[in-house]
């Protein structure tokens, strides 16, 4: 597992929308992060 993975995606939404990203790694760990679009 990379210590500093690169993630790139496109997003169509409005300022102030909440973005939630959830992923599972190859060791079985799961993580969810969220941010507000600015």
Structure write-up:
Helix content is 0%, strand content 37%. It contains no helices and two strands. The relative contact order is 0.35. By secondary structure, the chain is mostly beta strands. A two-stranded antiparallel ribbon has the order 1-2. The radius of gyration is 12 Å and the shape is elongated. The chain starts with 17 loop residues before the first strand and ends with a strand. The protein has strands at 18-24, 30-36. The mean pLDDT is 90.
Characterize this entry briefly.
This protein is mainly β and 38 residues long. The protein contains no helices and two strands. It has a two-stranded antiparallel ribbon.
Task: Give keywords.
38 residues
What is the 3D form?
elongated
Strand content: 35-45%
Helical content stands at under 10%
The secondary structure category is mainly beta
Specify the biggest β-sheet. 2 strands, antiparallel
Order of helices and strands: EE
Kindly report the spatial arrangement of strands forming the biggest sheet: 1-2
Mean pLDDT level: 90
Separation of termini? 30 Å
Number of separate helices: 0
Low-confidence sequence ranges: none
Radius of gyration: 12 Å
- The total count of strands amounts to 2
Q: What is the topology?
A:
Blueprint: E1 18-24, E2 30-36
Antiparallel strand pairs: 1-2
